[in-house]
Structures are given as structure tokens and as C-alpha cells.
């Protein structure tokens, strides 16, 4: 057998092996690897490359080396999932850089971080003033995590005491002009319903690039033809407005009637409507 | 527009609100939203009944407002 055939066979089988190894190590991003894991990856790829073009003879020595460089780190990874000390050893621990708003200079020195490095990392996190930081830690993967002081944190509905409606993930029901049946069924909608909604909007399925249904069953679409204007869903705001008008009407009727009993009935219903409006507002306002 | 016809119009509106809420309750994904829509729908139904009775009274008192 000529040598080049051997190279073809070895290379092809090694591609399969490397693919399996990569799959077994999971989905971690390159930038999240520790230096140790990075070096292991390098060694494995160098061994695979040299074995595949036949620099290592016999072939089996290369495979043994590859196996050991794969199995030991793989066992370490498995062990690290189970045990905290092993994890700290293999993946490293985070280092606290800022605590109670004070910079820990000793920890900076330990991680070979200059004050400029710290400022740069903080700026990466959109923090330009050290005084705004309550707590910052250098993670094991070299990224810095910042907890800003409470008054410097983004405002949330909870801070404002606003009740908001819970939402679920929207379902994408049309892609590239084709109906996706599975997400449609997950959302609990039928094809018939979708067709009716498209009819209401005055578009046909073929012209729809993307269509999504939100957790209130409202359909939003993007068309291939960008010159066409698609109306935004009006149902919820309209419903809220009608309910408010209804409440106002009840008050007017209560004021204008002479009948005592009717007056009472209108007043009671106006109050009921006000309660209903308060209850519905978080769900109906976008 | 007479008061009677205004009340009749309101009766129609409240029916439409009730139907809209019912449709939203069916289509909503989250339990909390479903419950809110459903409960307000029931309130609307009570109001609708009250208005209906009132329309009946008005028609009885003043024959000329009968019908739509």
C-alpha cells in the first residue's frame, strides 16, 4: 500500500476521532477555557496533526498519546462536576477585585492586574467610575463581573412598584413564507386561525418573511415587500379604551338618571368597571 | 340621541368587551393572564345583565323606545 493511501486513511479516521472528542467536551466557548484546558486542546490537535501525516511511527504510539491526553482531562472534567475542591483546582477560583466599594489591591497584584487593566475591564462593563461599583470579581475564565451600587443599577418595574403582566416566549409560526406547524401547535393555534389573522391583515402567507405570535395570541409579521405597511396589533389598546369609555358612560348615566334604583346600579357597575380596568391595565398596555 | 339609545349602545359595547376578553383568555399562554381575563369577563357579564334589565325597564316605562 503506498504511503499516501495510509495518510488518507489516518487523516479520515482522525477527523472522526477529533469530532467525537470535541462533542464529548461539550459546548463551552473557546474564551471560557482555562489555560490548562486550552493547552490540552493544543496538544491533542498537534498529536492528531502529526499522526495524520505520519510523522510519528508507529501509528499506535500516536493513538496512545492522543488517548491519554483525552482520557485524563476528560476524567478531571467529570470529577470537577462532582467535587468542588477538584473544580477549584482545575478551573480556578474567582478573585474578588472590589468589595464593599473598595478596591482590593493585594488581589489585583496576585492576578497581575494593573490599575489600568482594572479600569479597562470595568469600562468594558459600561462602568466608568470605580465609585459606582459595589462588588467586582475576576472570574476563572478571565472575565470580570460587576455588581453596580443599587442606585446605579438599571430601573426595573419592581423599583417603580408597577405590576407587569407575565410573558411567555413568542412562537415563530411563519419563516420564509412557509407555515411552521410545530410551534403553531405549541402555542395552541390552528392553521385556520393563522389564515384568518393573515386575512385580517390583508397579506398572504407567501409574502410573509417572518410571523410571530406573542403570549397574548397577537400576531406580528414582517413582509418580503418592505414598502407595505403592516398595522400593529390594535386589539388590546382598543379593548382597554372601550372599557374606560364604558366606565365613563356608567358615571354619566348615574348622574343623569332620576330613578334612585337605577342610579345605584350604575354607580355600583362603574366601580366594578374601575376595578376591572385596574386589573386589566398591566395585561393590556404594551 | 336619547338616553335609552345611549344605554342600548353601552349594552352593545359591554357585550363586545366581554367577547374580546373571552377571546384573549383563550389565546393567552400564561395562566395568570388567562385568569385575569376570565375573571374580568365575568364582571362584564354581570354588568351586561344589569344593563339588560335596565333597558327592559326603560322600554316598559316609555313605549316609544322599544326595539332598536
UniProtKB/TrEMBL annotation, chain A:
One Pfam family it belongs to: DUF421
Keyword Nucleotide-binding: no
Gene3D superfamilies according to UniProt: bsu07140 like domains (3.30.240.20)
Spans traversing the lipid bilayer: 6-26, 38-56, 62-81
Record's keyword terms, sorted: Cell membrane, Membrane, Transmembrane, Transmembrane helix
Location of the YetF C-terminal domain: 82-214
Compartment(s): Cell membrane
Main location: membrane
Topological category with respect to the lipid bilayer: Multi-pass membrane protein
InterPro entries: DUF1657, DUF421, UPF0702_alpha/beta_dom_sf
Keyword Transport: no
Family: Belongs to the UPF0702 family.
Protein name in the entry: DUF421 domain-containing protein
UniProtKB/TrEMBL annotation, chain B:
Taxonomy, superkingdom: Bacteria
Matching InterPro entries: DUF1657
Pfam families, sorted: DUF1657
Protein name: DUF1657 domain-containing protein
Species this chain originates from: Aquibacillus rhizosphaerae
Taxonomic classification: Bacteria, Bacillati, Bacillota, Bacilli, Bacillales
Amino acid at each position: 500500500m503506498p504511503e499516501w493511501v495510509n495518510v488518507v486513511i489516518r487523516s479520515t479516521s482522525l477527523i472522526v476521532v477529533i469530532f467525537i472528542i470535541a462533542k464529548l467536551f461539550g459546548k463551552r466557548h473557546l474564551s471560557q477555557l482555562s489555560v490548562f484546558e486550552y493547552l490540552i486542546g493544543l496538544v491533542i490537535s498537534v498529536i492528531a496533526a502529526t499522526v495524520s501525516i505520519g510523522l510519528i511511527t508507529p501509528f499506535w504510539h500516536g493513538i496512545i498519546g492522543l488517548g491519554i491526553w483525552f482520557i485524563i482531562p476528560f476524567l478531571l472534567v467529570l470529577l470537577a462536576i462532582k467535587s468542588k475542591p477538584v473544580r477549584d483546582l482545575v478551573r480556578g477560583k474567582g478573585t474578588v477585585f472590589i468589595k464593599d466599594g473598595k478596591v482590593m489591591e493585594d488581589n489585583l497584584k496576585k492576578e497581575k492586574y494593573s490599575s489600568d487593566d482594572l479600569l479597562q475591564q470595568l469600562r468594558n462593563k459600561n462602568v466608568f467610575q470605580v465609585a459606582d461599583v459595589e462588588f467586582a470579581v475576576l472570574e476563572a475564565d478571565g472575565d470580570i463581573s460587576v455588581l453596580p451600587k443599587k442606585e446605579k443599577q438599571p430601573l426595573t418595574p419592581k423599583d417603580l412598584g408597577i405590576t407587569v403582566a407575565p410573558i411567555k416566549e413568542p412562537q415563530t409560526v411563519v419563516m420564509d413564507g412557509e407555515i411552521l406547524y410545530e410551534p403553531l401547535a405549541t402555542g395552541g393555534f390552528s392553521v385556520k386561525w393563522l389564515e384568518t389573522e393573515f386575512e385580517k391583515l390583508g397579506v398572504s402567507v407567501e409574502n410573509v418573511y417572518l410571523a410571530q405570535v406573542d403570549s397574548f395570541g397577537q400576531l406580528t409579521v414582517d413582509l418580503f415587500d418592505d414598502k407595505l405597511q403592516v398595522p400593529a396589533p390594535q386589539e388590546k389598546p382598543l379593548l382597554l379604551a372601550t372599557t374606560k369609555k364604558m366606565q365613563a358612560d356608567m358615571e354619566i348615566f348615574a348622574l343623569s338618571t332620576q330613578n334612585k334604583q337605577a342610579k345605584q346600579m350604575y354607580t355600583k357597575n362603574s366601580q366594578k368597571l374601575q376595578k376591572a380596568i385596574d386589573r386589566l391595565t398591566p395585561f393590556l398596555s404594551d | 340621541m336619547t338616553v335609552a339609545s345611549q344605554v342600548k349602545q353601552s349594552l352593545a359595547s359591554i357585550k363586545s368587551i366581554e367577547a374580546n376578553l373571552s377571546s384573549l383568555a383563550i389565546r393567552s399562554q400564561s395562566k395568570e393572564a388567562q385568569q385575569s381575563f376570565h375573571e374580568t369577563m365575568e364582571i362584564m357579564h354581570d354588568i351586561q345583565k344589569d344593563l339588560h334589565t335596565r333597558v327592559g325597564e326603560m322600554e316598559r316605562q316609555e313605549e316609544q323606545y322599544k326595539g332598536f
